[in-house]
Amino acid sequence: RSLLSRALVDLDVCLCLFFFLLKVRPIEPAAVLWFTDGLVIASLENYSPASRIGVLVRAGSRYETFDSLGVTHLLRLASGLTTKGASAFRICHGIEAVGGCLSVSTTRETMVYTVDCLRDHIDTVMEYLINVTTAPEFRPWEVSELTPRLKVDIAIAQQSPQIGVIENLHAAAYKNTLSNSLYCPDYMVGKITPDKMHTFVQNNFTSGRMALVGLGVDHAVLKQVGEQFLNIRSGTGTIGSKALFRGGELRSQTGGSLVHAAVVAESAAASSAEATAFGVLQHVLGAGPHIKRGTNSTSRLSQAISKATAQPFDASAFNATYSDTGLFGVYTISQADSARDVVMVAVSQVGAIAQGNLTVADLNRAKQRKSSCLGRSQWLAVEIWLTRLSWMKSETGVHLLMFMASNA
Ligand SMILES: *[C@@H]1O[C@H](CO)[C@@H](O)[C@H](O)[C@H]1NC(C)=O
Ligand SMILES: *[C@@H]1O[C@H](CO)[C@@H](O)[C@H](O)[C@H]1NC(C)=O
Ligand SMILES: *[C@@H]1O[C@H](CO)[C@@H](O)[C@H](O)[C@H]1NC(C)=O
Ligand SMILES: *[C@@H]1O[C@H](CO)[C@@H](O)[C@H](O)[C@H]1NC(C)=O
Ligand SMILES: *[C@@H]1O[C@H](CO)[C@@H](O)[C@H](O)[C@H]1NC(C)=O
């Protein structure tokens, strides 16, 4: 008996120690991933008091059809509208009451619904997130009330030369899909009916096209939520068309004295090995933000261009990756009369590297810069990691990729 009780005490001590370690030591974030009937569920437990949960849907503007152009822009604004379970008012106040925040962002490929909240309120906020993404009602009067906001969004975008260049760049580069703008075309404003929105959501928001990602969330909680998604919107949806690169040139006159120019070629799909190489190349050339305020840039592009012109300019590598294609090139901003030189020199630098003019030291520095950029934001790392994994679904390399991602 004494043996047993001693064993129990030992066990107790062991367990205490175990839980103590569990509570105190878990600095390593734990990443967990499931694939259930096509739905990807991924979570990264970082033991932070704040949680973030995202629903990623492969329903960006590239999936808009000819007669529904702009629908994703409208959906981006429609996240607070009445759903089958709650009024617009209740959603807004319900999330605010617990200090949460719901936001929607779209890219050409993905729509991302994100909620941020304190860990204690996950359940409340998750219910809203599920209702917003799975059971919107799109009441006609609420949808038509979005028109002024749509117009403001478009007007703001039109003020930004950077946005204009990127939109035109995609329109010139692709024949279909990715040529669709992130912004509703002017002629579609006020013409996107609730029916079109319903059709788009019905066809594109299926579990096979969704991923649920949690940061600072208990894995079990997220898995439970995932099951609700499966109940509500199971199905794989159709496979979208492949993006066709065509190339071309598009010029848009603004009357300003600055020239924004992007010169790109088709690069590689995000899942391919070359995409990583293009990522490094971007850092070899200089992957600055598009607007800088007089920094003394040391990038290879800037160094080369400053030898060719004394006028102010900004130049960085442009790299966009999509699931089936990509764009790579240079983006320059310069005075109108030096634009020719700036663009020519920038493009010639890409050519020089292609010819092999690249030292090992430069290459290694670029790799380091790339890693430090990736590591900067944990959330970003999760997104990248997820995007990588979602193509790899059917393959067995999942664990290796997970490992790579948490070290990114
Ligand atoms: C979500 O929807 C269900 C049924 O549609 C409803 O019963 C529930 O109250 C809704 N919850 C929230 C938080 O909107
Ligand atoms: C997305 O929705 C549209 C309807 O608006 C549909 O035509 C299209 O096929 C859907 N895309 C996919 C990939 O299911
Ligand atoms: C290419 O650039 C985009 C930003 O434009 C970035 O998100 C992506 O990770 C880059 N691709 C690679 C392979 O680094
Ligand atoms: C930029 O760096 C160069 C050499 O490193 C230096 O000569 C120049 O004065 C710097 N310019 C500014 C604005 O700091
Ligand atoms: C290689 O690149 C460096 C720096 O950009 C340049 O100074 C040099 O002339 C280039 N060499 C050749 C052979 O292109």
Q: What is the number of beta strands?
A: 9
Helix/strand order: HEEEHHEEHHHHHEHEHHEEHHHH
Distinct ligands, ions and cofactors found in the model: 2-acetamido-2-deoxy-beta-D-glucopyranose
Overall mean pLDDT stands at: 80
- Mass-distribution shape: globular
> What share of the residues lie within helices?
40-55%
Biggest pleated sheet: 6 strands, mixed
State the distance separating the first and last CA atoms. 53 Å
Show unreliable segments.
Answer: 19-29, 290-294, 376-408
Please tell me about this protein's structure.
46% of the residues lie in helices and 17% in strands. With 408 residues, the chain is α+β, with helices and mostly antiparallel strands. The protein has a 6-stranded mixed sheet with strand order 1-2-6-3-5-4, with helices on both faces. Strands 7-9-8 form a 3-stranded antiparallel sheet, sandwiched between helices. Strand 8 and strand 9 (326-335) form a beta hairpin. The model is unreliable at 19-29, 290-294 and 376-408 (pLDDT under 50). The structure holds 2-acetamido-2-deoxy-beta-D-glucopyranose (NAG) (5 copies). The site of one 2-acetamido-2-deoxy-beta-D-glucopyranose has 10 residues, from helix 8.
